[in-house]
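Box S2. Input/output pair 1.
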Amino acid sequence: MSETKPKKTTGRVNSFKIIQAIISVLFLAFLSWRLYNVISSGVYGPDTWVRFAISGLIIGSVYAVIAIGYTLVYGILFMINFAHGELMMIGAFSGYFVFEALKSIPVAATGMSFLDSYQIISVVLAFIVGMFMAALSGYFLEKIAYRPLRGAPRLIPLISAIGASIFLQNAAQVTFGPQRRTYTNPDALLRSQGWRIPIGGEEVILTYTGVLTFVLSILLLIGLYTLVMRTRYGRSMRAVAENKQTAALMGINVDRIISNTFIISGALGGAAGVMWGIHNGIIYHFVGFIPGIKAFTAAVLGGIGNIPGAMVGGLLLGIVESLGPAALGIDFQLKDVIAFSILVLILIFRPSGIVGEVLTEEKV
């Protein structure tokens, strides 16, 4: 009897893999057929496809920065911080109020506001304040909502994270109002300005805000990867992720590492919020929820717990979300359906993600 059970289990696994392969081939064939029909119809010119790709890279870079926050917390505590999108929202509002405050400060020598007279300084201040406020919120979020539940079953902190997300949304609505607010960018970062690239007889605008968003996202991801993989503090973080008890015996302050992880995660979310406001222009109390869920999708797509995977997943999700409706010939309002369909498909067919999930003995 004991010898037949592994054979039955192996047979089920092989059958499931065959079904996966068949479904994957059929799905890819359907996508190829739809893409061929759209391209052959000539609905979109080459300039339009380039616009879609550029937009996908920009929004994907923001998803990647937010996804890193999920990855850091998951790597340390093996939990999903579903309130991370609200930290992005706090950063976006902080940057907005910095720009509004600087706009109201006149500079006598130039006759312009501080925002336009010292544009680089204004943008740097917006990012500093946005990252600081989001990091501070992440610190208190861990202290209040997660630390008392650290020894509880993994479902309990997850419920607490959802409750914290709802609380922060409503607190922002009460504090800042339900109306949408428009970012007032410095003159050098007007959303309509950029480099004009001729493609297919048309001009494609590569906006300054898009370039700033993409470049800053890459720099943040490189800096974080260097911190985690090349520094002594990063080794402490990886030790805590591997085994908290052993790390504590080696003299590592586990509580401090976890708090600092939430601070770093919050700072990244705040930077993403300011980038979102500068590039997209519109913020409100619910602005972080959908990008936060999509960033979670990006983290799963790349491999949860894997920093390069979060970057790959974010960029890929942004491109697919931007090109998908056009390639499939469907309404662009269905782009969210495409994003969340990817999440479902990844969880079913490759839950470890594209790059691969980082596993530790404690999780296994």
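Box S3. Input/output pair 2.
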Amino acid sequence: MAVELEYLYARIESKYHIKLHTESCFDKTIAWTHVVEEIEFIASLHGEELIFYSGVSCTSPAWLKRYIMELNKHHAGGLVMSFRDGETFPQEIVEYCNKIRFPIFSASWTTPYIDVMRLFAEILLQNEQRETNLIAALKNAIYYPENEGSYLSHFERNGFYRDMDYAVIILSCHAYDGDAGNERLRKIERSMHFMLGNVVMYEEKGRLTVLAVGCPLSVIQARFRKICGKDCNVYAGIGTMAAGIKEIHLSYEKAYTAYQLTKTAIRTNLLSYDELGIYKILADVKEETIYPAFVREAVGALMDHDEKNHTEYMKVLEAYFENDCSIMHTAQVLYCHKNTLSYKLDKIKKILGYDILKNENRVKIMVAIYILRLGKEYF
């Protein structure tokens, strides 16, 4: 529900003679404003606040630096500080704030903080209402696509037109869940506007659903490769590009499929639906009884043998097919002798009762393995 600090600054720069001293606003977003006069009170901040400070209690540049360090530590979005005529931030403070990417602004001693904060509050509340309406519209477009009246008008009133390109991304990072929530997920959420431009987002059950508007799929994929490449605990699925509002639900379904596969079948923390290969077909089958029956027919006897005798023949069979049915490569992967592997493969053929190298049977076994990798939702 936050607003870009750069936008807020543009609304007050000339009217209230407030001046930015850092190189930029550093892509900060603001959720609310606060007046904080003493360092001891900074710990009560929630994050993304723009702080107004009279400067009365500032005793030295060292004190001010410690004050700013605490603001940055508690994720404040920026600082507006009052100065008497002729005074301003010391250069060492400006350089420090540029280094930590923390925006600072100077105001005159007579700047009416109350008026500025009231203006910001109006902007923030209007934006919160807009975001709430867009989130409701997005959920309706996903879950009730046939009811166009519940989302089309909300989208179009806010500049999201029916013939624009839309893509849905679903991500999570449950490894960072804690009693105070998930700060890592909140940080990713705050970065979305700057990564993708025009977006609508909501968080549900620890998953962040993001609707990117007018952003090329290649750009979305590149941005998320960067996030997931840096943090293996972030899992993301990217849907297809929807050519219009009415197809948003299709992009969501495909994003959810890709996201689920990062958790089950495919060993990666980022998947785009376009990259799924055979899983596009497997994941789209909705008949619940097809997969269990197919798996039982293909490898059920082997699974039963493993369970009864505490063997791992299914693991051996999967490794064998993953290595193109090469005894030498499979033996290396399983750390066993080739003769031992050959014995196990012969045993597998007898248990299954058919030739596992016959083309039709090879396809059947591989599809069964893919289905098992999909997890309990499909099997």
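Caption for Box S3: The chain has three domains: 3-111, 125-276, 290-374. The first strand starts at residue 3 and ends at 4.
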